Amino acid sequence: MSPASLSVISDAVSVRVPAKVNLHLGVGPLRADGYHDLVTVYQALSLYDDVTVAQAATLEVTLRREGGRGADAAEVPLGDDNLAVRAVRALGEWADRDPRVTIEIVKRIPVAGGMAGGSADAAGALVALAALWKLDIPRAQLLEIAAGLGSDVPFSVQGGTALGTGRGEQLMPMLARGELHWVLAFAREGLSTPAVFDELDRLRADHSETFPEQNPRPDELMAALAAGRPEQIAPLLHNDLQPAALSLQPGLRRTLRAGIDSGALGGMVSGSGPTCAFLCADADAAVAVAAELSGAGVARSVRTAAGPVGGATRQTPGR
Ligand code: ATP
Q1: Is the pLDDT reported for residue 71 higher than 80?
Q2: What does the alpha-carbon distance between residue 17 and residue 29 come to, in Å, rounded to a whole number?
Q3: What is the pLDDT of residue 319?
Q4: Best residue for ligand 1 mutational test, from 20, 111, 191, 200 (most atoms within 8 Å of Cβ)
Q5: Residue whose C-alpha is closest to residue 118's, from 169, 78, 158, 163
Q6: Is there a catalytic annotation at residue 20?
Q7: Which among 20, 50, 121, 240 is annotated as catalytic?
Q8: What is the pLDDT averaged over residues 291-296?
Q9: The pLDDT of residue 3 is above 80
Q10: How much distance in Å is there from the Cα of 228 to the middle of ligand 1?
Q11: Lower CB count within 10 Å: N or C terminus of the chain?
Q12: Tens of pLDDT, residues 245-254
């Protein structure tokens, strides 16, 4: 291979980044800094965005929606507000380099869907640019930059199954035996994460007994995950943001009911929603639930996914 063709290959770096679901999302009181204290159990799922970074004259981002199933029409900014752009700028500052790169995002994770799609792109851009620039950056430092970009970004880098505390950015890897099989129901309209948190604050102010602020660690769920038994895990799925998401999109109640009626072991709104995630007994059950749920007409689209999967991972060129 000639040096020229070698440099063409090393000129672009592609990273695949997973979506996440929160198996437990406990929301504590509002903090003085405007964030809520969270206790959450993340799992990375086999639904991915791809982020490719290459040297260029100027910093630019392009976005291609793929599949028409995970993607949707919701707005993604292509300027400085894009989380991948913010990520390359942050790494540029750390490395004291001008991030003149093109960022190409292939988007399959629903936008404003409660599956950390924007965070995934930020994580992908960080890992890709660190590789493109051959930076010798310690993992802890990369995770710190990730945390500065958003609460879910460190988990998008790490993947797997993890307990998140603080704003969700402090991670502890968790033991989760075996593979869990999920069905994801994507909604027609997105939900803004800040709007869902605001709605929870409003519900709590009006009905403090129904929506308490205690936020214990989900020990029972953690034990069930370690045992790897979906039927034990399903009744322990919990999301404090669900009532707020349902209040803003009441139609999600029908989606949740339809998933259970289709044979899922359990279901919940994913993160701040509106994607609904259903845990199934095994891969065959997930395919059957997805088929029935598709026919029920309660979602824009439906697909299966498995977890846990790894975090942001560099793709080998030529594959
Ligand atoms: P989370 O689960 O982390 O709360 P989400 O999955 O609900 O987030 P995102 O898809 O991350 O939501 O998008 C939230 C908003 O962030 C979008 O409405 C969009 O305006 C903005 N955004 C910025 N960069 C991106 C990106 N690369 N991909 C998607 N959205 C982005």
Answers
A1: no
A2: 31
A3: 52
A4: 111
A5: 78
A6: yes
A7: 20
A8: 96
A9: no
A10: 31
A11: C
A12: 999 999 999 9
Residue-by-residue DSSP string for the chain: --HHHHHHHHTEEEEEEEEEEEEEEEEEEEPTTSPEEEEEEEEEEEEEEEEEEEE-SS-EEEEEE-TTTT--S-----STTSHHHHHHHHHHHHHT----EEEEEEE-SPTTSSS-HHHHHHHHHHHHHHHHTT----HHHHHHHHHHH-TTHHHHHHBSEEEEETTTTEEEE----S-EEEEEEE-SS---HHHHHHHHHHHHHH-TTTS-------HHHHHHHHHT-HHHHGGG-EETTHHHHHHH-TTHHHHHHHHHHTT-SEEEE-TTSS-EEEEESSHHHHHHHHHHHHHHT-SSEEEEEEE--BSSEEPPTT-
- Report the atom number in ligand 1 closest to the C-alpha of 63: 27
Residue 5 has pLDDT above 70, yes or no: no
User: How many Cβ atoms sit within 10 Å of the Cβ of residue 294?
Assistant: 16
Render pLDDT for 190-230 as a digit per residue (tens, 0 to 9): 999 999 999 999 999 988 777 777 888 999 999 999 999 99
Determine the atom of ligand 1 nearest the C-alpha atom of 273.
Answer: 7
Report how far ligand 1's centroid is from the alpha carbon of 104 (Å).
Answer: 16
> Which positions ≥6 away from 184 have C-beta within 8 Å?
45, 47, 115, 270, 275, 276, 277, 278, 302, 303, 304, 305
Among 8, 45, 35, 15, which residue's Cα sits nearest to residue 270?
A: 45
What pLDDT, on the 0 to 100 scale, is given for residue 74? 62
Q: Whose C-alpha lies nearest to ligand 1, atom 15?
A: 112
